[in-house]
Amino acid sequence: MTDYAIGDIQGCYDRMRDVLAQVEFSPSRDRLWVAGDLINRGPSSLETLRYLESLGSSAVVVLGNHDLHLLAVALGGHPPKRKDTLADILDAPDHDRLVAWLRQQNLSVHDPDRNLIMVHAGVPHIWSVDQTMAYAREVESVIRGNDAGYYFTHMYGNKPACWHEDLEGIDRWRAITNYFTRMRFISADGTLELATKESAEHAPKGYAPWFTYARADNVRVVFGHWAALEGQTGSDQFIGLDTGCVWGGVLTMMNLDTGEKIHCEC
């Protein structure tokens, strides 16, 4: 069995199938780890979601901000945004099943044998591996439970910008969500700056890319989200897989054991 991790697909179904074909991917013997943003902005969100759902246990998925946005539209009463390409999912006859499947996916996946965590945006230096997984489980239980509608109604927002263990309720859930799915720049004390989306060289004063802070452990982090990085973090410990497929870049997939990267022009 070979495990491959793939960056932000964002509804680029044909490009996903192209890169899988390069390694002759077979769900009977391989697994596909997806670093969030399965859907939205690309042309084939419905086909992408159906395919990944069909993989069953051969897909290891974490939720990205675009995936949560679909759930916020479906469950939290938010209107679609002008640039969304979610109508095919929202109008599909299997819409309820696909939404239910998406709600069961994780915010963070830990593989202790590989000393590896996969998330969508990143892992802040202020959290240990155990804390990271505990906070992920906390919000996952909300997304899957009876408070999901309330959570998605109030999910959006940049506050609180800094983590405190004594945060409660929606403020706590929103903060955890923002670290996992929206983080790019962060300060030494863990305060998020969520407005800047440019490359790592454009850090606002007092902030730096989250992956430039030293961690107390040596866990490797596989992530997506930050297309402007073009996959470059300057460190083998932090592996960026969003290389801007939906923006005309490339789709990147990586063999989790050998580190080999497979690309498909978009």
Structure description:
The chain has 8 helices and 12 strands. The chain has 266 residues and is an alpha/beta fold. It starts with a strand and ends with a strand. The protein has helices spanning 13-22, 45-54, 65-76, 87-90, 95-103, 129-144, 148-153, 169-181, and strands at residues 2-6, 30-34, 59-61, 108-111, 116-119, 185-186, 192-193, 208-209, 220-223, 238-240, 250-255, 261-265. The longest helix has 16 residues, at 129-144. The radius of gyration is 17 Å and the shape is globular. α6 (129-144) crosses α8.
Features of the shown structure:
Purple Acid Phosphatase, chain A, domain 2; 266 residues; 4-stranded mixed sheet; 5-stranded mixed sheet; alpha/beta
SS summary, helix count = 8
Structural class: alpha/beta
The CATH superfamily bears the name Metallo-dependent phosphatases
**Average pLDDT taken over every residue:** 97
CATH architectural label: 4-Layer Sandwich
The radius of gyration is 17 Å
Helix content range: 25-40%
Shape: globular
